[in-house]
Amino acid sequence: MFRRGLLYLSESHGAKQLLTGTPLTRTMSLRFVPGEGVDDLVGAVRKANAQGLKVTANYLGEAVTNRQQAQAAADTYLEVLDRVHREGLDASVSLKFTQMGQDIDEAFLRENLGRVLQRADDTGTFVRFDMEGSAYVQRTLDAFEALWRDGWRNIGVVLQAYLKRTPGDVARMNQLGARVRLCKGAYREPPEVAFQDMGRIRKEFVALMRVLLQEGSRPAIATHDDRLVEATVRHVRREGIDPTSFEFQMLYGVRRDLQKRLVEQGFTVRVYVPFGEKWYPYLMRRLAERPENVAFMVESMVKESPLGFLFGGAGTGSGGARPESRGAPPGSGRRGSGSGSGRSQSGSGGGDSGWGSHG
């Protein structure tokens, strides 16, 4: 019933006006999605950079079946890339193959996406391909490897720890030298495809995190889970891993207290900033996919408040990470040296948001 209610709200224009029409609700929505336009995004990037945070920008949209919409999405990314480069901001971009036209036609996808990749190469900006549900995992990885074979090196992918296939995918991406963002997973999947128990998911995440930090290429550890942050810091210290060889990634507006603490202690943190006209249905659907995310959102805000001591905090140490966005000069995205988060499940003691494909 609760899930159906959220899905109904996601499609209701009247509900959107009601829920975003008051100062309180508008402030809450801006907490997690800065707005609909590129100007809104750029403002959020400036603010994040001023706080010592790097950014990966995501123009909301997926499963596009209309050529004009896919071309419009690519045009928006071109504008983002130009603005970020012109203003000297520290931001990469995250997008989905289906947003660029994967479900329309492979030739169209290559042409449409090629415009974005070329502009990213020209501006020295990194492009991350977000992962979607399990039905799209192999298609996403096949498309990614096709680009890799074509010589693109300013690209990376997302792998989800709760999927039972992911250890093999991590090994393959490490073999390529491709950059991986590791997240728990953010889509509702059946038990034969994905682990369901949070303890097991955390165990898988830690194992994959260790492999990526030891054998991967500048991995991104994407989590808001205090236990997983602690596990990552302990492993880095114990193994003497160069702290500039990885970065933490978190969602915009989520666990800002933890983001701040990690930056203050020398780590690099990149925040995933979604924007666009589809922000309202996106937010409602992410909450509907897993209603525990409502509790997670509230918990995240409380942890930043004077009541945050009730939840405890993550132990962190010193370190840092190489930027994702401006680590290579313009023109180095192709034929260069190798480089290189579904549904999130929220549990007690610190969880991950299930919004989009980051968490």
How would you summarize the topology of this molecule?
Blueprint lengths: L1 H10 L1 H8 L2 H10 L5 H13 L3 E6 L7 H20 L4 E5 L10 H18 L3 E3 L4 H16 L5 E6 L5 H11 L2 E5 L14 H18 L4 E3 L3 H14 L7 E5 L4 H9 L4 E7 L3 H11 L2 H12 L56
Helix pairs in contact: 1-12, 5-6, 8-9, 9-10
Written account of the structure:
This protein has 359 residues and is an alpha/beta fold. The protein has one domain: Alpha-Beta Barrel (TIM Barrel). Helices cover 47% and strands 11% of the residues. It is built from 13 helices and eight strands. It has helices spanning 2-11, 13-20, 23-32, 38-50, 67-86, 106-123, 134-149, 166-176, 198-215, 226-239, 256-264, 279-289, 292-303, and strands at 54-59, 91-95, 127-129, 155-160, 179-183, 220-222, 247-251, 269-275. It has an eight-stranded parallel beta barrel, surrounded by six helices. α10 links the parallel β6 (220-222) and β7. α1 (2-11) runs antiparallel to α12. The longest helix has 20 residues, at 67-86. The relative contact order is 0.17. The model is unreliable at 317-356 (pLDDT under 50).
The helix content, as a percent range, equals 40-55%
**Amino-to-carboxy terminus distance:** 24 Å
Question: How many individual helices?
Answer: 13
Oligomer: single chain
Strand order of the largest sheet: 1-2-3-4-5-6-7-8
Amount of beta strand: 5-15%
Order of helices and strands: HHHHEHEHEHEHEHEHEHEHH
Radius of gyration: 19 Å
- Low-confidence stretches at least 5 residues in length (pLDDT < 50)? 317-356
CATH class: Alpha Beta
Number of domains: 1
Class from secondary-structure proportions: alpha/beta
How many strands, which pairing sense, and closed or not: the largest β-sheet? 8 strands, parallel, barrel
CATH topology category name: TIM Barrel
Q: Supply the CATH architecture.
A: Alpha-Beta Barrel
Beta-strand segment tally: 8
Given the C-alpha coordinates, what overall shape results? Answer: globular
Give the mean pLDDT: 82
